[in-house]
């Protein structure tokens, strides 16, 4: 949900009054409240279980202003039954989450969040909860991403344990109480849900988050079917669902169990919360009341943009993107007179796109809601290379560590193993680019979260020299940059980051892409080596989604592989068997 209290537009930014009147808005708390109430009325409250897979914190001026109290209020109004913790629930450390837990009227569960006895969270986050519907007891087990301590700020008083072992222990405890219907409510990402969570014995259903994955039936844009069925060692299929992000969709899954607690049927589809869903009037009034103190800031005009500035998750976490270029360029411009020559921005820190035309401070703050500051430091070229390798190490999972850059260029190859994907690193010297010198000290700017080791950038802690983390806020720097460069010209593909494939050297050089075609052209470069395109031997954890990501660079092309292998449905792939991998279409 990411604190999308107000409705959103097609760029996931706050929707304006005109677009709302024109029926161009989606989601928001008022639509979620209305849609949840309609589902309960249609199906009967005793037949509905309303779950949230976390990350309700962070992403709007409402969170920046109220720090979780507004999110708690509206989640209560929605009638949420159970929530698990997402990594962003730790963005303000323990105090913010403690306050939230005290305000909500539903249990918040996580099996692998283990507060110490001195923690303010001690005793407040059970591993699971048992709910009753229609006379049937259902266990709900929670889990958050294993790398939450890198992604957020749980603090020294909280241990993030390994997800699978923690879920197994919680499931075993539920089974020992006679519970035979168990839902894993996870914030670990769709690929991991498919590869390991759905295969844990005793798990019957997986409701996931973290990867912002849109699943649907009959929609080519979907990353997979809703639900995606996975073979469990217990001998049954486990439905896995996720409903995208930012409240654009409300997931709906109908599950039938037999007398032994085995899923016999699972079907559904996400509900698009568009203009056909009338927002709850009382909630709209409350949003207006809460929004009054921040309305002036939201409406402050900072400049104009000649076109949309794209910050789509799939773009900024897998390659060069327009918003990454803007933020990195803005940071570099602010501190260039200090001798800084390079800027790095983590793709996961870019939370929304901006449409063309007038740009407001509210839009900038929606892109950059974390109140990060510009941090500067010096580091050797070898450390910079390690940082770029870290950024490219988890592209398949859609991790937020991908490095958007200014003052440098690099290439990466997703067909190579993590830690060996980066090549061709060039750094700016005057008007030219020269190869990175591993022994030379470079002056670098980033945000204070990354400089402190967030998103795996530990080398910026251990290897940095002369670090200063208290520069101006990044959102102010970006707003000033847009003002000084209005109308700002978005850079969708400047050539500073290149995706390559093993056969690229042998293939004829493609014609330069036109600006509007740049994103498509970069995806086309990801075709797999012809030597391996013919077949693939299935290993543990494989699924059509991640195979399409590996071979085509685009998970949404999973149906190309599925169609070529009619006997190997997405319900589960047999380890050791062969798949046909057709050329990318």
Give a verbal description of the structure.
The protein is built from 20 helices and 28 strands. Helix 4 packs parallel to helix 5, helix 12 (322-335) packs across helix 17 and helix 13 packs across helix 17. It is globular. The model is unreliable at 502-533 (pLDDT under 50).
Identify the strand order in the major beta sheet.
Answer: 5-6-8-9-11-10
Question: And the CATH topology of the largest domain?
Answer: Purple Acid Phosphatase, chain A, domain 2
Number of domains: 3
Strand content: 15-25%
CATH class of the largest domain: Alpha Beta
Distance between the termini: 34 Å
Helix percent reads: 25-40%
Largest sheet data: 6 strands, mixed
Q: What structural class results from the helix and strand content? A: alpha/beta
Number of strands: 28
Average pLDDT across residues?
89
Question: Shape, please?
Answer: globular
Q: Any idea what the CATH architecture of the largest domain is? A: 4-Layer Sandwich
Rounded Rg: 24 Å
Count of DSSP H/I helices = 20
CATH superfamily of the largest domain: Metallo-dependent phosphatases
| Poorly predicted tracts of residues | 502-533
């Amino acid at each position: 949900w990411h604190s999308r209290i107000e409705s959103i537009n097609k760029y996931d930014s706050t929707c304006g009054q005109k677009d709302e009147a024109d029926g161009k808005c989606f989601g928001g708390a008022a639509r979620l409240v209305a849609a949840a109430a309609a589902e309960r009325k249609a199906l009967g409250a005793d037949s509905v279980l309303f779950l949230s897979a976390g990350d309700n914190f962070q992403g709007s001026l409402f969170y920046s202003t109220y720090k979780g109290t507004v999110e708690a209020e509206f989640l209560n109004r929605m009638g949420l039954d159970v929530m698990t913790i997402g990594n962003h629930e730790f963005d303000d450390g323990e105090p913010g989450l403690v306050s939230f837990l005290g305000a909500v009227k539903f249990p918040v569960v996580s099996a692998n969040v283990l507060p110490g006895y001195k923690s303010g969270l001690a005793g407040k986050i059970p591993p699971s909860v048992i709910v009753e519907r229609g006379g049937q007891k259902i266990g709900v087990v929670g889990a958050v991403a294993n790398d939450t301590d890198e992604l957020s700020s749980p603090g020294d008083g909280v241990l993030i344990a390994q997800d699978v072992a923690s879920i197994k222990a919680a499931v075993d405890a539920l089974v020992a109480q006679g519970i035979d219907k168990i839902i894993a409510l996870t914030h670990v990402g769709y690929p991991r849900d498919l590869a390991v969570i759905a295969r844990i014995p005793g798990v019957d259903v997986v409701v996931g988050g973290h990867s912002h994955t849109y699943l649907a039936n009959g929609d080519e844009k979907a990353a997979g079917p809703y639900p995606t069925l996975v073979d469990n060692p217990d001998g049954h299929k486990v439905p896995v669902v996720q409903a995208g992000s930012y409240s654009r969709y409300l997931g709906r899954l109908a599950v039938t169990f037999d007398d032994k607690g085995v899923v016999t049927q699972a079907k559904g589809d996400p509900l698009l919360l568009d203009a056909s869903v009338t927002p709850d009037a009382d909630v709209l009034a409350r949003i207006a009341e809460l929004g009054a103190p921040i309305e002036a800031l939201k409406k402050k005009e900072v400049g104009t943009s000649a076109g949309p500035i794209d910050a789509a998750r799939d773009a900024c976490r897998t390659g060069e993107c327009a918003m990454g270029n803007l933020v990195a360029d803005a940071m570099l411009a602010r501190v260039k007179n200090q001798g800084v020559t390079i800027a790095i921005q983590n793709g996961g820190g870019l939370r929304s796109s901006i449409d063309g035309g007038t740009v407001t401070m509210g839009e900038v703050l929606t892109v950059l809601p974390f109140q990060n500051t510009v941090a500067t430091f010096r580091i050797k070229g070898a450390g910079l290379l390690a940082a770029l390798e870290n950024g490219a190490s988890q592209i398949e999972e859609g991790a937020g560590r991908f490095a958007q850059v200014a003052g440098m260029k690099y290439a990466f190859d997703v067909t190579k193993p993590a830690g060996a994907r980066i090549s061709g690193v060039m750094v700016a010297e005057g008007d030219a680019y020269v190869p990175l010198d591993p022994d030379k000290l470079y002056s670098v700017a980033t945000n204070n979260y990354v400089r402190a080791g967030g998103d795996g950038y530990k080398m910026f802690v251990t290897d940095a020299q002369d670090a200063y983390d208290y520069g101006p806020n990044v959102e102010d720097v970006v707003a000033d940059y847009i003002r000084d460069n209005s109308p700002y010209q978005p850079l969708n593909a400047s050539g500073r980051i290149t995706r390559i494939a093993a056969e690229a050297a042998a293939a004829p050089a493609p014609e330069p892409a036109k600006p509007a075609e740049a994103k498509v052209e970069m995806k086309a470069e990801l075709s797999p080596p012809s030597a391996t395109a013919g077949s693939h031997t299935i290993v543990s954890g494989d699924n059509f989604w991640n195979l399409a990501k590996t071979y085509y660079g685009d998970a949404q092309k999973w149906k190309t592989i599925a169609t070529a292998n009619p006997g190997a449905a997405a319900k589960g792939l047999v380890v050791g068997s062969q798949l046909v991998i057709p050329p990318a279409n």
